[in-house]
Specification:
This protein is of the alpha/beta class and 441 residues long. Helix content is 43%, strand content 15%. The chain has a seven-stranded mixed β-sheet with strand order 3-2-1-4-7-6-8, sandwiched between helices. A six-stranded mixed β-sheet has the order 12-13-11-10-14-15, sandwiched between helices. A two-stranded antiparallel sheet has the order 5-9.
């Protein structure tokens, strides 16, 4: 019986020099899991050195795959607006339909900070019907940014905001939905930037609304810190997830390294790139924080991983609440080591007065941060405590007359319930430590 020839897989990647080490691992995992598929990877970049391009071509040649580089001059996005900490190069992703060759009808977009853990052939060959893309709902946004559709001007009750990190695209349908020229795209972004917190991702959600086929995020866009799967179940992750996405906790940052991050390093070792990736990471830490800090963080990370592996974070050894707090504190430490401040978030949103929800150790730590950065903290909220801290009263509930701009919830494990309760009594913006870190980066 004659076999039907499978389609060539077209892949789109946005890549700049500072993410080269992620690209080495990602491309190896992609090629490795598709040995019999013809594949062309289109890499969109503002500037990529000749050395880096040569290195990526070498990786592709090992597997018999093709790489095409599409260089977008930085002047093209000069007129696009700046939003918070996001680099302007992110706007390159909204330009994909304009720079992609006309004969490419279907393409799979992949963020560079992923590893491909299984074949994506079935996903790539699926029927899209009348939809222009297939994507996964963003579980982080679903949990922390309710009402995001209203902010984007989408008022459907069943609206699902998708994560742009993994998307199967019908290029012809997408071009029909997008503005006709890059100039029109730029004008739209300039006009609406105040409501586009996540820049390119928001743009795609606006223009693809009503034409999205939703995929299983646990399988095709697995982001561990919002998946509610405990770290000790790494075998479950590796067995079920076709794509593992390091959207927040980056494995090249020692402060974020855990069993989940070790999946990245195992692949790096498997394909012989671990040494060069680690050497580059070591050099970056030496320049920014010094050799001593690097060694301390490395020892701490290795010890943490060893404990995770030995105890597998069982319910007795590390309950979910403690695990979440552990992850939050590691990410906040990285946030501070990178020179970020609470004021970055406050200034982005125009906030001046804040309240802290949670009178425990983490809550008090955040009060100290706020005071150090000279922000006014009228009160602390905690249903189980009373008294004061540094002269700041601890209240059991917020009142309508309380004049505050934002309430920072430090009890991450109970954020959903707390947010719902606070929204009844207060008009203040409700956020969490994780959300602050995600927005500022």
């Amino acid at each position: 019986m004659k076999k039907t020839k499978r389609k060539e897989m077209n892949i789109a990647v946005i890549l700049e020099e500072n993410y080269m080490d992620y690209a080495k691992v990602m491309l190896n995992t992609l090629f490795y899991h598709h040995p019999e598929r013809e594949m062309t990877v289109y890499i969109f970049s503002t500037k990529l050195s000749r050395k880096s391009r040569g290195r990526l071509k070498e990786i592709a040649a090992v597997y018999g795959k093709r790489i095409e580089f599409i260089i977008i001059d930085s002047e093209v996005t000069d007129g696009f607006p700046q939003r918070g900490h996001w680099p302007k190069s992110l706007w390159n992703s909204v330009l994909i339909p304009y720079y992609l060759p006309d004969d490419v009808e279907r393409i799979l977009y992949l963020d560079v900070d992923i590893v491909v853990n299984k074949s994506l052939g079935q996903m790539y060959d699926m029927k899209l019907g009348n939809n222009c893309i297939a994507a996964c709902e963003d579980l982080w946004v679903k949990r922390y940014r309710r009402g995001i559709g209203w902010r984007l001007g989408i008022f459907d009750d069943d609206f699902k905001y998708f994560n742009w990190g993994v998307n199967l695209i019908d290029a012809r349908r997408l071009r029909k939905r997008f503005p006709q020229t890059i100039g029109e795209v730029e004008r739209f972004c300039v006009e609406h930037i105040d409501r586009m917190d996540f820049v390119d991702q928001d743009f795609y959600n606006i223009f693809c609304h009503g034409s999205v086929k939703y995929l299983n995020p646990r399988k095709y866009n697995f982001i561990h810190d919002i998946s509610q799967i405990p770290l000790y179940k790494v075998k479950v992750i590796r067995g079920n997830a076709a794509i593992i996405h390091y959207a927040s906790d980056k494995p090249l940052k020692l402060e974020c390294l855990d069993l989940y991050g070790m999946i990245f390093w195992k692949y790096a070792a498997k394909f012989g790139v671990a040494r060069e990736v680690f050497k580059n990471m070591q050099g970056d830490y030496y320049k920014g924080q010094g050799k001593r800090t690097f060694c301390k963080l490395l020892i701490s990370s290795v010890r943490s991983i060893a404990l995770q592996y030995q105890g597998r974070w069982t319910a007795d050894a590390m309950p979910d609440k403690a695990q979440i707090n552990h992850q939050v504190l590691l990410r906040w430490m990285e946030f501070l080591l990178n020179g970020k401040k609470l004021s970055s978030y406050m200034q982005m949103h125009g906030f001046e007065k804040l309240a802290i929800y949670g009178g425990g150790a983490i809550g008090k730590m955040f009060v100290d941060f706020a005071i150090k950065e000279q922000y006014e903290v009228p009160f602390i909220l905690d249903k189980n405590l009373s008294g004061e801290y540094h002269g700041i009263p601890i209240k059991k509930s917020v009142e309508e007359q309380d004049e505050i701009d934002v309430i920072i919830v430090t009890a991450e494990s109970y954020f959903d319930e707390i947010e719902k309760e606070l929204n009844i009594k207060s008009n203040a913006h409700i956020t969490s430590i994780s959300q602050i870190i995600y927005e500022i980066g």
